[in-house]
Description:
The longest helix is centred in the middle third of the chain and has 31 residues, at about 125-155. The protein has 2 domains: about 5-205, no CATH class; about 205-239. Helices cover about 65% and strands about 0% of the residues. A hairpin with a 2-residue loop joins β1 and β2 (about 160). It is built from 9 helices and 2 strands.
Amino acid sequence: MNKCIERIYNGLVKENPTFVLMLGMCPTLAVTTSAINGIGMGLSTTAVLVMSNMLISMLRKIIPDSVRMPAFIVVVASFVTVVDFLLEGFVPSLYDSLGLYIPLIVVNCIILGRAESYASKNPVLPSIFDGIGMGLGFTVGLTSIGIVRELIGAGQIFGMQVMPDSYEPLTIFILAPGAFFVLACLVALQNKVRNNLAKKGKQVSAASGCADGCASCASKGVCGGHLIQEESKKKEEGA
């Protein structure tokens, strides 16, 4: 598979930040009261991911290891500020809905994790597609949760009424407990699909959600995913 396409597939399916790696849970649970909020936060994060991955990859041989995390944060914060101003100027209603969670993109573990584990170690083009894949995966996750919560909790999708007038909305789904419940159900559904694929012999990612681009892979293969892979290799050799 072409490496760039593989990075997009990786972010959307194999290591989806929301449903597989369970990263960025704060905005995932807080802003997904509606589908438009979910897609707005997802696309904002995607823009920051792509631009920060690109710049960090370009500067990867210049940034000293001793200050790489502060340098990454400065890069990410710069792009978050640009996105923040653009949303405030052109989409004020979305800006008001997302509120504090736009500046908090700076410390989103998805962005810093990809900067540390992938962009700082790989060329520019694959790093850009890695950002696109992870960003789209995050957007799909947030939008899916937002659609379910808005549909059940308000009878609407993207602000349009889809349920009949006789439908009585379950408002708990647009409150905090509804966020946890919907996330749990969608993760369970995703795990069910992955388990069925595994039983049919189709390749799925390791149980930990780890692949070669995770932050622990640089730690001499001591992360959970690599340990699982090593155990599998030993069993195959023993057989």
